[in-house]
Automatic annotation (TrEMBL):
Predominant localisation class: nucleus
InterPro entries cross-referenced by the UniProt entry: Fun_TF
Localization (cell): Nucleus
Keyword Transferase: no
Disordered: annotated segments: 268-287
An MF annotation (GO) of this entry: DNA-binding transcription factor activity
A single GO cellular-component term on record: nucleus
Protein name: Uncharacterized protein
Amino acid sequence: MIMSGSRFQLTGSAVDQVEDNPIPVYDDDHTTLEPLDTPSDLIPDLGSEDVCTEVQDASTLDEDLTKTSVTSLILLRHFKEGPGHWVPMIAAADRLLRSAVCAIAAKHLYRLCVAQEDSIELLRGHKGQKWPALYHNADWRYLSAKHYDEAIGRLKQAVDLREYEHGLTEKEHMLAAVTILCIYELMDAPDKAWCAHLSALPLFSPVADPVAAPLSPVVIPRTPIQGPIFWSLARQDLLCAFISETQTRLDLEDMPLWQNAGLATNKDGSLMPFSPPGSADVRTSADAEEDTKSNELTWLLGKISNQITSGDAIIPTDYALPIGHRPQIGVTQERLLERWNLLVTELRKWKDSLPETFKAVARGLYAGGDSCFASFEQIWYELPICAATMQEYHMARILMLVNQPQESTAIRSTVSARLKSYRQIQTDVHCHAREICGISLANPTDPVRANSVQSLFVAGQVFHKRHEQNAVLKLLSDIEKDLGWTTSYHRARLIDEWPRG
């Protein structure tokens, strides 16, 4: 899901110099870059055989080091230009972070190469400079696994040495690396490996999960966490809960945890329109109100997800138990409806508190050539984060409407009244689904598109007309082709759910 607008940036000379010098040397010990005056001289001619055995043996190590260094720089640059747009980052100087960055960048390149025929052009720099031809045919899949293993090994070492106790920087680097590794897993179809990383994170309470999951390679000690890293992990936790249909791992009732991350709430857990004096507000002057509203919606979506997955169980996690093992006594329909109404009120208050930037600046019928989009509007927002947040809002409204508890059958209601209610719900969810697609059709930025996958999936579940279904499939397919972000899992599920014929 999308990162906060106040995400961490790549800092230091490590990546900045890459922009100006195509073939720098990477000093693995001091994490600095030295530009080369004659870069071509440092790329050995691998086809040359007119050298003596002694010189060839001596140059092999230099050759391998040079190849590794340049490949790492390709990945660092690609991360900054590609996946780094939606992954929070602190620095490229830390070895653990560098391994995680290279892993996700290599995986992204591999995914793009699979999806696009002209993959060789992916390695062109912004200034038209090419990397050495030697690396055009690099095995990005292998390099991705290699750097991933390095990152896991360094993460284990950091935990064993308790480096997170050395200072705030070390702690942030470690947790940022875990965040990136989680997204590394998520770039493929969501599976248990991704959830395993989340389960091992320090901000998640070690509560027994009724649905057994494999253990993460690293179990990280619990430690406070703030800022964009926290919200990135919170969004991943929410997405994992949606996909696996389980409760969120994060305790949404642990208000000190959320207030520490900058969420302004009162004692009963209701959102406040401002941050009270003395609150743990970690936002900086560069952060916008839009970031705060996006974070608030993440928290509300978590509450909605937990409401849905708890069913009528008295203890929410009981509903995750297999049929036959669940308690026979549940929450009454009246109580479920009361909870639902409270969430509706919270979501409405959040919507009413939005600044003007969350209003669409323009609407118009789709003017492109794809016939499946002909009946849709294009909906533009001034800020990308507002576009992404509003897609999630419309998804939240769909989830609330289709999961509205019914009044007890003891309360007399005519058949006509109930059917009218059902038809109104169908009309409303269809409207929200089209809004989601309309935002995706307005040429959003890559981070917004990557963030839109789950919203588009929910919109697709609403549609029953063939051209609308095809529109969602096309939007999801283009995301995978253009961004390397796997959507085949979502497309396959939609096709399986839609009535045939």
